[in-house]
Amino acid sequence: DADVTQTPRNRITKTGKRIMLECSQTKGHDRMYWYRQDPGLGLRLIYYSFDVKDINKGEISDGYSVSRQAQAKFSLSLESAIPNQTALYFCATSDRTSGSLDEQFFGPGTRLTVL
Amino acid sequence: DQQVKQNSPSLSVQEGRISILNCDYTNSMFDYFLWYKKYPAEGPTFLISISSIKDKNEDGRFTVFLNKSAKHLSLHIVPSQPGDSAVYFCAASARYGGSQGNLIFGKGTKLSVKP
Question: Looking at residue A41, what is its pLDDT?
Answer without folding.
Answer: 84
